[in-house]
Predict the structure.
Amino acid sequence: MFRRTALATLAAVATLTLVSCGNDQPAASNNPSTPTLSGTVTVFAAASLTGSFTQLGKDFEAANPGAKVVFNFAGSSALAQQINQGAPADVFASAAPKNMDQVTDKGTPTTFAQNTLEIAVPKGNPGNITGLKDFTDQNKKIALCAAQVPCGAAAEKVFKAVSLTPQPDSLEQDVKAALTKVSLGEVDAALVYKTDVLAAKDKVDGIEFPEADMAINEYPIATLTKGANAAGAKAFVDYVLSDKGKAVLTAAGFAAP
Amino acid sequence: MSRRSRSTTGRLPLVLLLPALLGLAFLLVPLIGLLAKAPWSTLPSRLFSAEVWTALRLSLVCATVATLICLLLGIPLAWLLARGNLPGRGLLRALVTVPLVLPPVVGGVALLLVLGRRGLIGQHLDAWFGISLPFTTAGVIVAEAFVAMPFLVISVEGALRAADPRFEEAAATLGASRWLTFRRVTLPSIAPGVVAGAVLCWARALGEFGATITFAGNFPGRTTTMPLAVYLALETDPDVAVVLSIVLLLVSVVVLASLRERWLSGLR
């Protein structure tokens, strides 16, 4: 609660500052026919996109020297709430269609990436985890995401599909928290996204399982109609959907939709 | 207490009164926002769910035990800081407040690195005694005590430094040992400071989120305290989160107000 509020305040202050900076320059939104983009594009993106979108932002700025991309990374549901409460954002990239649906004033969302679950174990697999059935073992320390967050909902779906009842020791508040428990060796295994395993490959090993296909997570992106920089927003979304954008996302472990 | 404050209000200069009222509004308006947003019609049905009571009970038990631990360790620590002639006491005092400055999530990671299954001390606890603190109720208490103890230490140390040392000296000249002096002279004279510190400590422990969820994880009935339940409810149903927050606020205000009245008025 506390952290959430602090985050929202920070995000609001940061975006306000940046938006006001952007307004000093001639805004692209007022003149859509301008060939070169300028001003700030504020992107609210799911936490799991932190690595790939930071890279995409740099590439986008390099391709459009007048433009600047500012990110606010957080859980998708928090971002959806911030947007609906009036946080100034131009683009929203969500880790779940459900959170995209919660946002009211937006363009048509497009699915730009898919993510699947993978078993993450500490380097060297000290708990001798071989597959999903180990998640039912009382003697193994297991972390899952809470059912309220997308990775937890996906995990629930998978376990239902294979008719197993997992015995978790902790239901983590987001996928990064579950991953932290694995990388510190506090749990023997956790169910996280493939992209998370790849991002932490120095500290965790991944074990793929065939049933992961039963809970594919889709990532939608949309421009926000109340944003200050409509041209910049559209250009950024187009860039994410372009071949260059796809290449960055694939390198991070996402699948093309 | 209320009688005394009423008689002094008339003499309060405007230059103090205005910012005081502004400060009060600043603290209370978010609370009013929470109350205004509450789904009053469905509130009773949401309140009487088993999860709410489990989380509330766990919160109260953990915060209380954490406060007791803080009292046991914190009062002697405050005494050491206030009365012990230690080299580098200033630095030590600053270090004691580290948990106040540290983002609680970082505090939780630090606890994992020390007391976790692979932690500096935790690996031995696990190997020798089979004790593993993460993901247990004991882990919640450890996380809360870590974050809340500085509030108690600072408050008690302030009281110790303000207390008149001549009473202790008099007791010593009458032949009392230092332990007897501490128990019979020092402790009673700093009691208001101890109570105030304990109250702050308990309140901080009750609202603890970051260190708890990082160190102890989240599992209903075992480590899901009210703040954790609020956070997760916010993911799906903000209305439930508001209800849970109000319950937590109500309980803490009632407990704190009654405790303060009873203890502090009795001591004056």
